[in-house]
Amino acid sequence: MKKLAYLLLLTITLNVYAQSPWTQKKGEAYLQLSFTTIPSYSTLFGNPEYNTERKINDNTLQFYAEYGLSDKTTLIANLPFKMVASNEVTSPSITPFTTEDSQSSLGNVQLGVKHNFYNKKWLISGQLLVEANTGSYEDASGLRTGYDAWTLTPTIIVGRGFNNWYIQGFTGVDIRTNEYSSAFKLGGEAGYKALDWLWVAGFLDGVASFQNGDFVDPRNNRLTGLYVNNQSYAAFGFKLIGEFDKNFGANVGLGGAFDGRNVAKSPAISLGLYYKL
Q: What's the number of CA atoms in the CB half-sphere (13 Å) around residue 44?
């Protein structure tokens, strides 16, 4: 079960942070460096779907860490570094408002804590994350690397491990400042140990905006679709999780969306390396 708990921590490749009920043991730490890319896209989900003004690239280099303050309480830190770019216009008939440009800077940095409340076959844990307003925005290009808001995210996570597989689910709320809308979050995941060193997992993940905020995105920001207000999606994905040895391993993931609002209509691909202390 301890080995399984470590493996479950690898499932952050397509999420902003781990949604696992397992906590670190006291004094133990888990570190992961991952790279996620949404390849060049020009279409956003909506009703109806619509195009961005330019083709957009969205890449994230992310450092994630957990540290066991006690056997039941784990500290969390997430440091995303965003690399976004706007390229050629999506139609030759467009006279663009935005400029062709690229931007590399911090996204929304996260700090938080996870605590296990119940551990008898099934685990029930609570997690609280604070997401800082550390992103940047450049109006000429409309490129944004994070929400222009602070976010508080309380989450309840439930899971259970078996001999060769595990299941987990979570639900929570993103509560944002600066008149951004808040959002409801819900997701689940199941994984199977296909080989001694390889886990195969699939997940479902959804975010539904309450549309209760009055924040008005700048026009150029709306033309890129990066971190705009009232984003929603229903996503799915698959992951491969492999161990090189007891301390070092890697993962790869592919995610897409069934539907959404104001988010890219393009798959996300992620690669990660982890080390545990």
A: 24
